[in-house]
Amino acid sequence: MYKITDACLSCGICMDECPTGSISEGADHFVIDPETCTECGSCASVCPNEAIVEE
Questions:
Q1: 23 pairs with which residues across the strands?
Q2: What are the residue boundaries of the structural domains of the chain, listed by start?
């Protein structure tokens, strides 16, 4: 499962890259919906701040 950490800059690149639309804006930074995430890793590969990690 992937998680977006506090290192997120809320740039939105990951949201645009997600093929399932599992990423949305949260209160402090973007968040991943674990119910719809397929764990493809596309979001992590494009994050410029390496804020998306596998748990």
A1: 32
A2: 2-54
Reading the chain (55 residues) residue by residue, the pLDDT tens digits are 999 999 999 999 999 999 999 999 999 999 999 999 999 999 999 999 999 999 9
Nearest CA-CA partner of 45 in 26, 27, 25, 19 = 19
Closest CA to 50 of 16, 14, 25: 14
Write down the pTM of the prediction: 0.92
Contact 51, 40 (CB under 8 A): no
Q: Choose the CATH number for 2-54 among 3.30.70.120, 3.40.50.970, 3.30.70.20, 3.10.180.10.
A: 3.30.70.20
C-alpha span between 50 and 8 (Å, rounded) = 8
